[in-house]
Amino acid sequence: MDPARKALLESLEGKARQLRRHVWRALRAGGSGHAGGSSSAAELLVALYFHRLRLRPQEPDWPGRDRFVLSKGHANAALVATLVLAGVVEESVLDRFYGFESPFGMHPDMKLPGIEMCTGALGHGLSIGVGMALGSRLQALHFHTFVMVGDGELHEGSNWEAAMSAAHHRLGNLTVLVDYNRICQSGPLAEVMDVAPLAEKWRAFGWQVVEIDGHDLAAVADALDAVPLRPGCPSAIIAHTTKGKGVSFAENTHLWHSNNVDEAVYNRALVELGVP
Amino acid sequence: MTTPPPMNTPAPLRSATWRSRSANQTRLAFGQALLELGQEDPSTVVISADTQDLLGIRSFAHDFPERFVELGIAEQNAIGVAAGMATTGLHPFVCAYAPFITARSMEQVRNDLAYARQRVVIGAAASGISLGVAGGTHHALEDLALMRSLPNMTVIVPADVTEAYRATLATRDLDGPVYLRLGGRVEEPPVGDLEAPFQVGRSVQLRSGGDVSIIACGALVSLGLQAAALLHGEGIEARVINMHTIKPLDRDAVLRAAGETRGIVTAEEHHLCGGLGGAVAELLALERPTYMRMIGMPDVFAVIGPTTAVREKYGMSAAGIARACRSLPGLR
Lengths: 276, 332
Prior knowledge:
Chain A contains 10 helices and 9 strands. Chain A is an alpha/beta fold. In chain A, helix 9 (217-226) links the parallel strand 7 (208-213) and strand 8. Chain A starts with a helix and ends with a helix. A 7-stranded mixed β-sheet of chain B has the order 2-1-3-4-6-5-10, with helices on both faces. A 5-stranded mixed β-sheet of chain B has the order 7-9-8-11-12, sandwiched between helices.
């Protein structure tokens, strides 16, 4: 492997580990939180922020910045952990998760710098991303917009309104990342409400699709490098992931969609996550 | 809070000389005003939800094709897309049916526009029972209550085409989202001074009177003036106030009317719950308890029928407003 690529992947791996440690730190501060969907998105987030997105950390409002919208806003702890690692927000904010008058609640809020939209009510982010992509094209701002959606989130019909409009308007400057961890709040998607076949759905709506292992940083980086997958076409990266990835007791169970985190749980998680 | 990019500062508008040529309905005056905004302000973008004729925006689409976005019959997406565009510095005008863009898209309006405080204007045609014959599924008699309940939201109900035109232009100077309530095919008679400037949040007193105050919005303003003429014949002098902005409410005008007349009658094409009457009652209950009567849609779904006939059935008529005025203590 190219040494630069190897160094990048090693660096991203370290960031992903730090991200997960930050997530659990926040959850401990809040007493509970969405460990499952935050952990499944870790590699996607670090590859975005430390490899793909054009940002100016000291100038979070720079008009030419690439946009990232976390539509599956319940993974806000992971997004804010990423912004901490990127130097956009202070590390101390992690200890204010769920706090009184904190800018850092369960869902993304524009009270924090680097948060592009108040999301978390599911099925909103992709429409907002379509608007950002149109705004970029219309004003020749030349930025790319990325939106991360959950798989259960795709139950919301508004996503498909947005998907249809993105293809119709030929938004090659828009990419959706689907965190396909196959588990929603009540249980496996296959039992609650199946979204399969997912790639076929996006293709049928006019999107170019690539499927990857969402924890394989090389694959994630390659996919992010490859978008737009076809000019004039929105891109969908379907990332197969593991809910709760990185902490064995939280993996692959809807019980850790959101759960309580006390000192003992936190310490068990940190042991598994290893040193930063 | 992420600071939005600085707004454009376009040249002054030529609105003072505007006279409706073809627009005889408020929804079409909105479309004509967008044409002027499009010429003056390059950040103006127009979003259609398959509503190109409903709001008279084909001219805008023709003149500014790159700033016109058709999104089809998908109101939730339309609001979200508008919010996303607004974050990039554009000023989107969403053109839609009042019953659908409010009730169906309420969550997008609340979160993406009001909570995130995005500068987006919703032009909502076919409000109230302007689509009377379409039936209850197409009436919008709760839209003011929905929109008025949201922090950061401005709610405007123009009374005639001139006011609709001026109000549309006035949204350019507002921060945050705006709900602009427009009518359907009914041609409302002009009210007030065609040359008078339009100020958001500043009501217009159309008639002075010391016995009773009629506070109306939209189509009911003209009916309020007719009611005042009826009452004048009986020796009752009614003050008529065009309360074109429901939020923020012109508190001073309401409190003055409460202090200077014996009672207040509100009139609107909206459920009695949560609209103009509700806003006035909330204010007066706290600050200056006053005898009130409220004209509007009672707590039932309206029957199917032509707009005027349906209005009359529920008392939204000059006679109905006059009757409400007479029923106030001390006025008969």
